[in-house]
Design goal:
Elements: E1 3-13, E2 18-28, E3 32-36, H1 43-51, E4 58-63, E5 69-72, H2 83-88, H3 93-97, H4 100-109, H5 124-136, E6 142-146, H6 154-167, E7 174-178, H7 182-188, E8 191-196, E9 199-204, H8 207-241, H9 248-262, E10 286-295, E11 298-308, E12 313-317, H10 324-332, E13 339-344, E14 350-353, H11 368-375, E15 379-381, E16 384-386, H12 388-394, H13 411-424, E17 429-433, H14 441-452, E18 457-461, H15 465-471, E19 474-479, E20 482-486, H16 489-498, H17 507-511, H18 517-550, H19 556-589
Parallel strand pairs: 3-7, 3-8, 5-6, 6-7, 12-18, 12-19, 14-17, 17-18
Antiparallel strand pairs: 1-2, 1-4, 8-9, 10-11, 10-13, 15-16, 19-20
């Protein structure tokens, strides 16, 4: 591998905070790196520094002589002219038409866009696709892509992943991409960078491997924190037993205890919307009966039959312009059918998370806390009554954001607040129209956790394959003006788009192609047994920690015996965890 780009001891700060500090990292030939992190942590800033478009306050960026770097950032840099001219420049038709890469990019990214269209006539999403196409037709050694899947449909994301995987020979070129599309990250990347707390942590593998490694890192951090807390309890127990007249030694011990507490990190943001009230759904939800829809006399949907059931969790797939938003408008009642009818149940309360942040339009000058405070004075989460500020913090809003005016929030924070307002309105039919826009991967995971426990009917329109497969139980496709059920899910949809025949496996084949019924039962029993053994070890270890805190601190032999038992049980638990993971993987893969 050869060095391409390097950053040495980079520091960058704004008037209010430090974004990156003492950061060193590099790119080598063959690197395929995905960048994740919370909104505002510095992902786009990092790409700008590597690209040379953003100067750090200190440190330096080095680039090997002759290296060609291509950049897709968040800015719209297209000039005037036609779509085709912006992509191929001044090249003659016979020249660019004979270039296989140009033909593939035009076909893969500009479906439904006339190459002779003037750029000024394009939507924001179409302009973004043109900018990406112009970049990919160039010859670059390094590609730095900031959210390249924005405004791409599922087919476009699949094409982009295939293009990037085939763009360079093995061990050649380098790619760094910021993306919230987790399927795309897994399909393209072999390493991950997580930007957080002014630094970057590196992980081997794609997004799935990153999640596993971060989970293990957090587990180890929790174990260390538990040991730290146990030591703190021992220290405090010693202090409680100390005689008040003793001065020097208690003072030393108090200082030691304070040192243990000083560097305890704040907990990560968490989401806790479990138990939010929602109106009860009756037997009838929404029925589309032979429903058609048209705009300006042009048919969009024809003869749609869809009877939405209570608790149904459905994903809607389709190309841009296929009629997905029209279908949602029929469901939520904002559009009347041109023929047929739409029937809503008497108890149905539909709310729709739009792409336009409509819920925040009239409160741009208000503070976050004020907006929430107008709705209710308190919210019940489980058995706990929370004030608006407390609920916001549990949703990931740090305290300093509560007094921020809505207009000053970033797109990601606005999206979080919009989702919160929709959920707090207590709908029983929730429609999410491209909910992943402006959200980082941590917030997407948090949102999915909320949706897992949401008790109503859920309809999701998204080009994020990971989200669709994660939160919905069935999928439909909007194509050719019709609504088609997809028993085979996203794979069936992509095969239909490719014109291939689809074989939908039976439920039994999906459930256990590699294990007999007896083998599956044995694995399930093994997992249950391992669970019980780990729970017993956890309880015994907790009891040992309590004994350690209350034991006579002058009895070194007794203290060492207790500590030895704790170490043995922790080692045994780690071994059991490995067995559990192996058994679970066998069961999952089967």
């Amino acid at each position: 591998m050869a060095h391409l780009v390097g950053a040495e001891r980079i520091r960058l700060e704004t008037p209010t905070r430090v974004i990156l500090d003492d950061l060193s990292l590099g790119l080598e030939t063959g690197d395929r790196i995905g960048v994740v992190g919370r909104n505002g942590e510095g992902k786009s800033t990092l790409l700008g520094i590597l690209a040379g478009t953003r100067e750090p306050d200190s440190g330096r960026v080095t680039t090997r002589n002759g290296v060609r770097i291509g950049v897709l950032d968040q800015e719209d840099r297209l000039g005037a002219g036609t779509v085709l001219a912006s992509i191929v420049g001044g090249r003659e038709e016979h020249e660019w038409a004979g270039d296989r890469r140009v033909r593939e990019v035009l076909s893969g990214l500009l479906h439904g866009v006339d190459p002779e269209t003037d750029l000024d006539a394009l939507s924001g999403g179409q302009r973004r696709r043109v900018a990406l196409a112009a970049l990919l037709t160039g010859d670059h050694d390094v590609l730095l892509l900031d959210e390249p899947t924005n405004h791409l449909d599922i087919e476009g994301v699949r094409w982009l992943a295939a293009h990037l995987n085939a763009r360079w020979a093995a061990g050649q070129g380098a790619l760094v991409t910021v993306s919230h599309d987790r399927w795309f990250l897994d399909a393209v990347c072999t390493r991950m960078w997580e930007v957080h707390d002014r630094t970057v942590d590196a992980f081997e593998g794609g997004y799935a491997a990153y999640v596993l490694q971060r989970l293990e890192r957090d587990r180890q951090a929790r174990a260390m924190e538990e040991r730290r807390q146990n030591l703190m309890r021992k220290e405090l127990a010693w202090l409680r037993r100390g005689a008040p007249a003793r001065t020097a030694k208690p003072k030393f011990r108090i200082e030691a205890a304070n040192e243990l507490i000083a560097d305890v990190p704040p907990p990560r943001d968490s989401v806790a919307l479990h138990g939010m009230a929602s109106a009860r759904l009756g037997k009838d939800v929404v029925d589309l009966i032979d429903a058609s829809a048209a705009y300006d006399g042009t048919p969009i949907l024809e003869h749609v039959e869809w009877r939405i059931a209570p608790g149904e969790r459905t994903g809607i797939l389709g190309r841009n312009g296929a009629g997905k938003s029209t279908l949602l408008a029929l469901v939520d009642g904002t559009l009347a059918p041109s023929s047929g009818r739409v029937k809503h149940g008497k108890t149905v309360r539909v709310r729709r998370l739009t792409q336009q942040l409509d819920e925040l339009e009239d409160v741009q000058g208000d503070r976050v806390l004020d907006v929430i405070g107008r709705l209710k004075t308190g919210y019940r989460v489980g058995d706990t009554e929370l004030a608006p500020g407390q609920l916001l913090e549990r949703l990931g809003f740090p305290s300093q954001q509560l007094s921020t005016r809505i207009a000053e929030l970033s797109g990601g924070w606005k999206r979080r607040l919009q989702l919160l307002l929709v959920l707090l309105d207590a709908p029983n039919v929730l429609i999410l129209d491209e909910p992943t826009n402006d959200l980082d991967t941590d917030m997407l995971t948090a949102m999915e956790d909320v949706l897992d426990t949401w008790p109503g009917t859920l309809i999701v329109v998204s080009h994020d394959r990971y989200l669709i497969e994660r939160v919905t139980d069935q999928q439909y496709a909007v194509a050719g003006g019709r609504l088609r059920h997809l028993p085979g899910g996203v794979d069936e949809y992509l095969a239909l788009e490719d014109g291939a025949s689809v074989v939908v496996p039976s439920a039994e084949a999906v459930r256990s192609p590699g294990l007999s019924g007896a083998e599956r039962r044995d694995l399930e029993k093994q997992l249950a047994s391992l669970d019980r053994r780990m729970q017993r070890l956890t309880a015994e270890t907790r009891a040992d920690h309590d004994a350690l805190a209350t034991h006579d601190q002058s009895d070194y032999v007794g203290l060492e015996a207790i500590a030895g038992r704790i170490r043995e049980r922790e080692e045994e638990r780690e071994s059991l965890e490995l067995e559990w993971i192996e058994a679970a993987e066998r069961l999952e893969s089967a």
